[in-house]
Amino acid sequence: MPLFITKLIEYQISTIFITDKTSDTGKKEFEVYKKLFNWADKNDEGIAVWFSPALENKYPCNKAVVSKIAYDPETMQKVILNGAILFGNEAELCIEAFSVIAPEIKEIKDPELLRNMLITVV
Question: Is the dihedral of CA 108, 113, 114, 117 positive or negative?
Fold first, then answer.
């Protein structure tokens, strides 16, 4: 299993997968976390994107998490590098950003549907 390295990303997102597996939001985010590791286990390279919509009293803004399969230069162990892009708090912005990355997925009106979707590019 690849090592999970968090870079350019706030502490909360790196721990939410570990600490919150019981709320509806936590379950969705843990699901995408498992998808990310499964994808990384099966591929030698690639980029994945996950959108976390703003959520009242929890996340003040939308977030796109970009993950890349990489290798530790010293050990050549597979790792997942992550970066986060924070943008606005309007649901429409999250849906619009998602549609730019994945135009083949149409008709999403509820940004919560994005929370457990992982877009991968191999």
Answer: negative
3-state secondary structure the chain: CCEEEECCCCHHHHHHHHHCCCCHHHHHHHHHHHHHHHHHHHCCCCEEEEEECCECCCECCEEEEEEEEEECCCCCCEEEEEEEEEECCCHHHHHHHHHHHCCCCCCCCCHHHHCCCEEEEC
Q: Check: pTM over 0.85? Answer yes or no.
A: no
Residue 23: which domain range? 3-121
Contacts of 4 (CB under 8 A, 6+ apart): 14, 37, 79, 80, 82
Q: Other CB atoms closer than 10 Å to residue 20's CB: what's the count? A: 15
The residue type found at 70 is A
- Print pLDDT tens along the chain (122 aa): 444 444 333 434 443 344 577 889 888 988 998 999 999 999 999 999 999 999 998 889 999 999 999 998 888 989 888 889 999 999 889 999 999 988 888 788 899 999 999 999 87
